[in-house]
Amino acid sequence: MKASVLALALQAMAVQAVRILQSNDDGWAELYLRTFNDALRSSGHDVIVSAPAENQSGTGGRDAEPSNRQAACHYNSCPPNSGAFGHNATRPDLNWVNSFPATSMRYGLDRFGPELWGAPAELAVTGPNYVTNLWLAVHFSGTVGAAVYAAHEAGVPAIAFSAASPAGGSQPWTTTPTPSHSLVYAELATQLVNKLVDSGKPYLPDDVWLNVNFPAATGACSRASDFKWVLSRINTGLLSSRDVEWCGSDRLPHEQRVYDTDGCYIPVSIGDASDRSTVNDVARQEIVLDKLRDMLVCLP
Predict the structure, then answer these.
(1) What is a single Pfam family found in this protein's UniProt entry (predicted)?
(2) Are 212 and 159 in contact (CB under 8 A)?
(3) How many of the other CB atoms lie within 10 Å of CB of 91?
(4) Are 251 and 243 in contact (CB under 8 A)?
(5) What does the angle CA 103 – CA 28 – CA 202 come to, to the nearest 5 degrees?
(6) Nearest one of 230, 209, 227 to 296, comparing CA atoms
(7) For 83-139, what is each residue's pLDDT tens digit?
(8) Phi, psi of 238 (to 5 degrees)
């Protein structure tokens, strides 16, 4: 993985650092989130984590004030009776909130970010989630819920990352050595973040978020360089207006189709934060296309 570290270091020399609020629904002590956090920081960004104290998968956009914890946080990452929210003893940029993913995002944007930065977040990212969030799953995902809160309620451009993962469930941040698939997902997610940042502000149109799902990082798709990015849509679009012209069509491929196509294809769907469906607005779609155009490919 030395090549991955070198690649991120080279990116850091070329990418403008921005303030990023990071969350998830698997918990603040989960491996994917922390690996992604390391990659973003290595790329030069100023990142604050604000994520649930424990696994809150499948909680959608629920938002409720955090309550005092009685038990330890996930993976014993905070002691019992630690209050309603807290942070790592030596790293105040790593915060937990005893509530839902959307609430964690809200606390990060409204409280932790302004306290540490003295300025608002410029970009919000969630995940990578420890399972994919495609099509119908989008409406139940806490990872998506946190991203949508940022984009719709706070006006902060957001990306939700999810990934196919090995059987056995999520792993703690202390897992050593870091599994190669976690490093690959972190490197890929950082590539997309850096691409958007490099495209200039505004990073995404108003009320737009991106839904990104990584196929399994195994076999012929074992390295970040093996993967290809495809612009896609969340819903099928049977009753929707036409999409932006791309790849010889005015209908973007459905994200499930992209994900299921052999060849390490990553669907990047343009989401409407008001209802979690595809943005049915060619003008906003075209803005996203122009920002990502030179990293995108067409399906075979």
Answers:
(1) SurE
(2) yes
(3) 10
(4) yes
(5) 60
(6) 230
(7) 999 999 999 999 999 999 999 999 999 999 999 999 999 999 999 999 999 999 999
(8) -60, -35
